UniProtKB/TrEMBL annotation:
It comes from Stutzerimonas stutzeri. This is Uncharacterized protein. It comes from the Bacteria.
Amino acid sequence: MPDEFDGKPLRTSEEVRGALMTMMDRRLQSVAGALNAKLACFYGCESSSRIYRMVLGGQVLASRYPYLPEQFLVAVNIGEVEAVTSTDPISALVGFPVKWKTQQGNSASVRMFDKPALLTRGLSKSLGTVMGLLVQ
């Protein structure tokens, strides 16, 4: 994360986490708009570990999109953040001056969950997921 967001300086880790959550919320709203979907946070909405529900609206062309979930969940988690040291190579890796980063490990994640229906010759087969793998 750079040292500012929306033209305001980011001075504390709490401000950075808030800015990251605002950024993720805006990006999810943009995706929902592109999919003609409704997006609503329903768990942890004031925290940095949120779950959103996205419900697809309108008619989606089955020939173009064979997997048609009616809805899916998006879990966003932003862990602790820390200031970047002058010796950290992250700025060179991402291509802009980085002031803040999440801690090492899986400390920032966006996960999506659904139960899609595969349309095959007009018939739908219900599919589910187990540990992220698609099963029938």
